[in-house]
Amino acid sequence: MGQIQDWRGQQIEIARSAGGVVAAAAPWENVVRTGVQPWPPPELVVQAASDGDPDAVRRRLDLLEGIPAVAVTADAVSFARSLVENRVVPRTAEADALHIAIAAAGGMEYLLTWNCRHIANAQIRGKIEELARLRGFEPPILCTPEELMETDQ
After folding, report:
1. 3-state SS of the chain: helix, strand, coil percent to 5?
2. How many domains does the chain contain in total?
3. Residue 80 domain-assigned?
4. Is residue 11 domain-resident?
5. 3-class SS at 122?
6. What is the CATH number of the domain that holds 77?
7. Any domain includes 93
């Protein structure tokens, strides 16, 4: 773990992988930046960032400004439906299914999340991977930022 200065000027804890992926430990600072392109799923992240206190909303949307986004394609929506219909992800968590599907259809290598109930969950990971491959997608690695940290060797 290391520290960086966030958009408020405060020091925050970060995790850094051997491949250079950096993820912040605070949820709204968890915009993943890689050597290629950062990506939040567009509509879902903007929708979630737009809820709540107006000052916090402005700060969140400012943080997301200018970050390229992966498109929500028909393939992603279809895969998300499949995750729900096959009871891999519950109907109450359709947005989580869409996060997984966008990452898979968009060819993302990792989907970093603090959501261990419906996304980074070892109990369902195999089912997600199987359904992704049946649709012709290479599934992303679903993990928390902590799982992606460098190790001392």
Report:
1. 45, 15, 45
2. 1
3. yes
4. no
5. helix
6. 3.40.50
7. yes
Q: In the numeric block, which tokens belong to residue 28?
A: 């709204």
Per-residue pLDDT tens over the stretch 98-134: 889 988 998 888 888 888 999 999 999 999 999 999 9
Name which residue leads in pLDDT, 96 or 132. Answer: 132
Long-range pairs for 119-124: beta carbons < 8 A, 24 or more residues apart = 120/144, 120/147, 124/88, 124/89
35 pLDDT higher than 50: no
Predicted TM-score (pTM) of this structure = 0.64
Task: Report the alpha-carbon distance of residue 124 to residue 105 in Å, rounded.
Answer: 18
Question: Is 75 strand, coil or helix?
Answer: helix
Tokens of 91: 């109907």
**In-domain check, residue 100:** yes
pLDDT of residue 12: 53
End-to-end CA distance of the chain: 14
